[in-house]
């Protein structure tokens, strides 16, 4: 496909977080995006959630900026109420037919005021609130929805009984002052030309009414997990007040039942839904936080699968800090109790049957494929697996059976938000590779109005105080804070907003700036870490310099930390607003620094993830420098023979290495390490240990991890004891033909005090090895000693197969770990059988230890690239949920085991994701630093050099001018505005733009008045 007939546009089907992330990545990389969504607003499932694990961030708070960014992006065309109905052509040149269902409201005219819904007499069950509340026949999907426009449900609207009858209802028409409503709108079809398709249609939740034992729909206080999310949510039907549906009483005891619609072969759902354990723990924790009494919370489960990054810590904290009760059991059924209570009948591990009464029961329902997406996939010729999820070809991460069509998110299998976001970026990276020749051919450049010159103007401040539903509003008296703001010096306009981060609020802020001549803007809401860029963009669109803006974080600093002290929280919020207004009065415009972009990339680490990232970037046309400290490429994959799905890893690795070494855009450096790093995004210079210097614009860290070398179970002292990787190699070499008795011990070096995390892949690895042994030797005796079997996703099928083939699984507890002894008659393993409740002795020919994945020594690279590590030594991403491959340092990305434990397929996908994210920077001709840098008053500078010593960004230097005067100088492109130099300067010669000494003093003085 040549550039002449490649089309630089992409169709993204589905606008959940996967579709949104992929669209933003593609649009930022130089492609025009059509984002197609069947519902009247984008967002998918994430807006329905209350909080997200493991950070307990408000789901809408972290999603809203992306909704707004997606909605305002010049190169993303959002088509709601729309579906893909036909696709013809080939990769690089497709024609797609999109059918758009009439919404009967013109989004271009609708202001989102809600007058139409107030006037509408028809109430129906609200799907968004899972039927727990009512909406009108004309409705907006949720408060912060984009587009910020209403839609009419023509199946419920009275007017549609006879459109020719003028007397039929029509109250919405009279209420709409914008004239946006038209009941005669027709469905439309359009044909678009695109180069690729990305499928991200999301999932459906399992309907538990299919399983009679739970009596869902019969017992009023048995709800699904998604219904419970809406109960907890500030925007839900009960305003975030924890009550049960039947009588709106506060429950005293709540139970969660796991694996409802998952791990159930009888209904064709043999897979694990991967997310249910964690969301149940999160819900129990948040429910206990919502209750101002000692709420009883119990989770009934088979295996607790907290295998993700920081998940195990969250699990342990739920037990120790919050007192959540975990009951390993098998639930037999639910029965009615007194006063709408629910009785759970369940069996414990010893076989005893117990009945217990609860006020409310939450069913942790699994994920299943979206039915319309299944039909679409069949129409497109995209193959599905046995569970009707998209069948992803082995070791591709995001491909489908039809070239040019990629998949991201839960449609390729159940997964949580970080993996979904990562897959979206990976799919975007693959699209960028496919359409590299057409990059920039259809995109437009956003133009802003000329910035108003506010110098010499009287300060006119506008203050916007956010309720954030009840996240802030349930604790802080938001209207009183807004009224208080009106009394502050320089404030000419103040108001409160239900959601200041919504699209309509952004429009209202711009209107207020224009109508009131505002030249300083204060927003009192949540964290500037997630929301400041979005509000600054609003200022730019209004013609103000984006740095004439200040945020007061009254969520984190007031409503969250002073939840039980509403009056004190309100007073503190007023104080924070007062301080922000005082600082705001002294804010001055800051101009960005524009510099040319170096379009070369550095990848540190030559394992599978690093090579995947390098190959993707090189195929996009970017020169790549691949640095590996070992003398050969491959990383830990050199020790892996078969993937979890039976892939020939060594053949794949050889092919990958051949592609790398033969690629004209890749230069490989082996046997060397990174010695020093200087610069910033777009202009890095890295020194290698061999003396070579590499200039590059971005960096990808893919340094891998190591296998824990056990100090327990006689490892290193007994020839029969090996790690699982060693066992795999011995199997491949045919060294175990005479071995008949195998014992695999799980969680060796994981989930303990030294390494309180799950290594994610060990359970599946043990099961896979057991099956390989059974394949060669069906009569072999294999025992797998485990704490929880964590075969998430489709790996559950392997666990099921292993049990059917006679592999024996025995659970052990941490206070009764297995004992390995060397005796005169052989190597003996003693363990307690949790069913028989008696010790069992096995003489083993081979003992396999599921050894932990441990981080390498990343401290050096952490300091050189100024990127953080977590407590376990793995690299720490910018945001656990929404930026899983980004660092807080611009232009530096991560992938693979350096980020945390994961399997080969996941490493490949994350390598592609890192490349996709890196390409959003590399695609730009220039980079802009925001300009909030330190600056030096050279008349005051004594050239002591303290600023040079303390600067973590290496932005400060001592410079001697032509007159021989030496003074400090700060490179504004390198400077991060941290203020270390200003706070260390003994003579007060250094200030930071946007956070000057005078502004800080003004904030302090505001509190003393």
How would you characterize the overall build of this protein?
This protein has 1009 residues and is of the alpha/beta class. Helices cover 26% and strands 25% of the residues. The chain has a five-stranded parallel sheet. A five-stranded parallel sheet has the order 15-22-16-17-18. A hairpin with a 5-residue loop joins strand 20 (342-347) and strand 21 (353-358). Helix 2 packs parallel to helix 12 (528-541) and helix 17 (724-732) packs parallel to helix 18. It is globular, with a radius of gyration of 30 Å.
Structural topology:
Blueprint (H helix, E strand, L loop, with lengths): L8 E5 L3 H12 L3 E5 L14 E2 L4 E2 H14 L3 E4 L2 E9 L2 E8 L14 H5 L3 E3 L8 E3 L1 E2 L11 E2 L18 H5 L12 E7 L1 E4 L3 E3 L16 E3 H8 L20 E8 L15 H15 L5 E6 L9 H10 L4 E4 L1 E7 L5 E6 L5 E6 L1 E6 L1 E3 L1 H10 L24 E3 L9 H18 L26 E6 L11 H8 L5 E7 L5 H14 L3 E6 L2 H14 L7 E5 L1 H6 L5 H19 L8 E4 L4 E4 L3 H12 L4 E5 L20 H13 L4 E5 L3 E7 L2 E6 L4 E4 L1 E4 L3 E3 L13 E3 H9 L8 E8 L13 H15 L4 E6 L9 H9 L3 E4 L7 E5 L2 E8 L4 E6 L2 E6 L1 E3 L3 H7 L26 E3 L9 H19 L3 E4 L4 E3 L9 H5 L5 E5 L5 E5 L9 H5 L5 E3 L4 H12 L1
Parallel strand pairs: 1-2, 1-13, 2-5, 13-24, 15-22, 16-17, 16-22, 17-18, 25-26, 25-27, 27-28, 30-31, 30-36, 31-32, 36-47, 38-45, 39-40, 39-45, 40-41
Antiparallel strand pairs: 3-4, 6-7, 7-12, 8-9, 10-11, 14-23, 19-20, 20-21, 29-48, 33-34, 34-35, 37-46, 42-43, 43-44, 49-52, 50-51
């Amino acid at each position: 496909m040549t550039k002449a007939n490649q089309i630089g546009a992409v169709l993204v089907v589905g606008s959940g977080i996967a579709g949104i992330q992929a669209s933003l990545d593609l649009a930022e990389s130089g492609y025009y995006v059509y984002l197609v969504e069947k519902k009247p607003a984008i967002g998918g499932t994430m807006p329905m959630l209350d909080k997200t694990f493991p950070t307990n961030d408000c789901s809408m708070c972290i999603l809203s900026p992306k909704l707004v960014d997606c909605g305002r992006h010049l190169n993303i065309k959002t088509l709601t109420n729309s579906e893909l109905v036909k696709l013809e052509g080939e990769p690089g040149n497709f024609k797609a037919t999109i059918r758009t269902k009439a919404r009967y409201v013109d989004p271009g005219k609708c202001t989102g005021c809600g007058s139409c819904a107030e006037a509408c007499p028809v109430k129906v069950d609200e799907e968004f609130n899972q039927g727990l509340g009512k909406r009108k026949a004309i409705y907006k999907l949720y408060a912060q929805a984009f587009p910020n426009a209403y839609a009419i449900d023509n199946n419920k609207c009275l007017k549609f009984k006879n459109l020719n009858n003028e007397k039929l209802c029509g109250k919405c028409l009279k209420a709409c002052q914008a004239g946006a409503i038209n009941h005669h709108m027709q469905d439309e079809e359009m044909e678009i030309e695109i180069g690729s398709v990305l499928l991200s249609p999301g999932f459906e939740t399992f309907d538990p009414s299919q399983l009679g034992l739970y009596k869902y729909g019969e017992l009023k206080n048995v709800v699904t997990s998604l219904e419970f999310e809406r109960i907890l949510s500030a925007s839900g039907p009960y305003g975030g007040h924890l009550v049960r549906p039947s009588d709106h009483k506060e429950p005293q005891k709540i139970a969660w039942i796991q694996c409802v619609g998952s791990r159930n072969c009888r209904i064709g759902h043999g897979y694990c839904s991967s997310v249910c354990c964690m969301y149940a723990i999160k819900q129990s924790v948040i429910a206990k936080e919502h209750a101002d009494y000692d709420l009883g919370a119990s989770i009934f489960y088979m295996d607790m699968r907290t295998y993700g990054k920081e998940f195990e810590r969250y699990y342990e904290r739920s037990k120790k800090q919050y007192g959540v009760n975990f009951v390993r059991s098998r639930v037999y059924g639910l029965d009615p109790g007194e006063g709408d209570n629910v009785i759970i009948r369940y069996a414990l591990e010893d076989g005893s049957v117990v009945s217990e009464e609860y006020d409310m029961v939450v069913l942790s329902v699994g994920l299943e494929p979206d039915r319309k997406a299944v039909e679409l996939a069949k129409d497109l010729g995209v193959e599905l697996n046995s569970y009707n999820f998209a069948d992803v070809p082995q070791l591709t991460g995001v491909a489908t059976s039809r070239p040019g069509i990629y998949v991201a998110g839960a449609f390729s299998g159940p997964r949580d938000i970080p993996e979904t976001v990562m897959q979206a970026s990976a799919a975007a990276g693959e699209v960028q590779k496919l359409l590299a020749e057409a990059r920039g051919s259809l995109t437009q450049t956003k133009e802003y109005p000329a910035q108003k010159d506010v110098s010499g103007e009287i300060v006119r401040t506008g203050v916007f105080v956010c309720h954030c539903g009840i996240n802030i509003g349930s604790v802080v008296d938001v209207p009183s804070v807004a009224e208080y703001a009106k009394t502050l010096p320089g404030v000419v306009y103040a108001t409160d907003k239900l959601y200041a981060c919504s699209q309509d609020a952004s429009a209202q802020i711009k209107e207020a700036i224009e109508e009131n001549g505002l030249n300083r803007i204060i927003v009192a809401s949540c964290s500037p870490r997630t929301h400041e860029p979005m509000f600054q963009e609003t200022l730019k669109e209004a013609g103000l310099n984006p740095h004439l803006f200040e945020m007061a974080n009254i969520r984190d600093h007031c409503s969250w930390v002073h939840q039980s002290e509403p009056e004190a929280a309100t007073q503190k919020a007023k104080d924070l607003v007062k301080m922000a207004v005082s600082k705001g009065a002294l804010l001055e415009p800051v101009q960005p620094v524009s510099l040319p972009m170096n379009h070369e990339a550095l990848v540190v680490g030559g394992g599978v993830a690093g090579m995947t990232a390098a190959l993707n970037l090189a195929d996009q046309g970017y020169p790549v420098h691949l640095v590996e400290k070992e003398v050969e490429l491959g990383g830990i994959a050199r020790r892996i023979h078969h993937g979890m799905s039976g892939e020939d890893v060594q053949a794949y690795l050889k092919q990958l290495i051949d592609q790398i070494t033969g690629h004209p855009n890749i230069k490989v450096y082996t046997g060397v390490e990174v010695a020093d790093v200087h610069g910033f995004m777009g202009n890095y210079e890295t020194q290698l240990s061999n003396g070579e210097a590499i200039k590059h614009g971005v960096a990808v860290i893919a340094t891998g991890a190591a296998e824990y070398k056990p100090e327990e179970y006689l490892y290193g002292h007994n020839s029969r004891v090996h790690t699982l990787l060693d066992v795999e190699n011995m199997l491949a070499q045919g060294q175990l033909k005479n071995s008949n008795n195998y014992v695999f011990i799980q969680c060796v070096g994981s989930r303990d005090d030294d390494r309180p995390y799950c290594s994610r892949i060990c359970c599946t690895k043990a099961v896979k090895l057991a099956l390989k042994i059974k394949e060669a030797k069906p009569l072999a005796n294999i025992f797998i000693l485990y704490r929880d079997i964590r075969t998430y996703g489709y790996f559950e099928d392997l666990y099921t197969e292993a049990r059917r083939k006679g592999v024996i699984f025995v659970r052990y507890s941490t206070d009764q770990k297995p004992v390995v002894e060397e005796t005169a008659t052989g190597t003996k393993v003693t363990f307690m059988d949790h069913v028989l409740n008696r010790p069992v002795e096995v003489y083993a020919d081979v003992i396999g230890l599921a050894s932990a994945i441990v981080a390498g020594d990343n401290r050096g690279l952490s300091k050189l690239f100024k990127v953080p590590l977590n407590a376990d030594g793995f690299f720490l991403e910018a945001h656990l949920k929404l930026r899983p491959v980004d660092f807080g340092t611009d232009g530096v990305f991560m992938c693979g085991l350096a980020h945390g434990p994961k399997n080969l397929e996941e490493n490949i996908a994350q390598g592609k994701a890192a490349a996709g994210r890196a390409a959003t920077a590399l695609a730009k001709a220039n980079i802009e630093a925001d300009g909030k840098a330190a600056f030096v008053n050279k008349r005051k500078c004594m050239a002591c050099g303290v600023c040079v010593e303390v600067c973590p960004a290496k932005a400060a230097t001592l410079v001697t001018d032509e007159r021989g005067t030496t003074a400090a100088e700060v490179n504004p492109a390198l400077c991060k505005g941290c203020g270390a130099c200003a706070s260390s300067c003994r003579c007060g010669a250094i200030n930071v733009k946007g956070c000057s000494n005078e502004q800080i003093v003004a904030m302090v003085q505001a509190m003393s008045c």
